[in-house]
Amino acid sequence: MDWLELPSDERAARTQRVVIVGSESTGKTTLARELVGHFRAIGGIWADTRWVAEYGREYTEVLIDRQGVRAAEPEAEVHSAEWTARDFAVIAIEQQRLEDAAAASGSPVLFCDTDAFATQLWERRYLGAGSTAALEAVPVSPPRGLYLLADLAGVPFEQDGIRDGESYREEMQRWFVEELTARGEPWQLITGTREERLASSIAAVDELLSRHFPTLT
Fold first, then answer.
1. pTM of the predicted protein model
2. pLDDT at 217 > cutoff 80
């Protein structure tokens, strides 16, 4: 199979999407970037390995500025937005669009720093279980190769100016475990030191790729 000669729609369908999820401040973005760096360094078709950033973070920054939160309290340690159901629908749709575009144009593996499913849980955290706009906006996502759930154990909460969920970290992690299990998604808890998390993630992704692309790996 010559991956680079496949049409974009077939590449999107065959790309193994590895989604990194978890509570706030658990090293998700760091892990995503390190995984991308590892696979790009292999070279060949893997040199074009891509990742999808968390659109919700960009949206949050815009929303905070639009609502005048920083202007009202410029010296505040954390600036929190006021959320509506529509906000989460917009985030879920754009996150899925970015993911699909990347899957159609990269290597056989794509790393996603969150996804539309995770957006559903963030909507639940802010607006309660009765709010389901993200699910209604993106009721079905393409098949996932693997979810990597970043464990909060051993990772201290670091404030970055917009994080406001320190007290929700344990509950959010439990929600991810419950929902991933209930949906029958393939997932693995990633724990330990930063180096151990990367090593176990690489091993899990290597195993995934060897099953789907034995001639490439």
1. 0.95
2. no
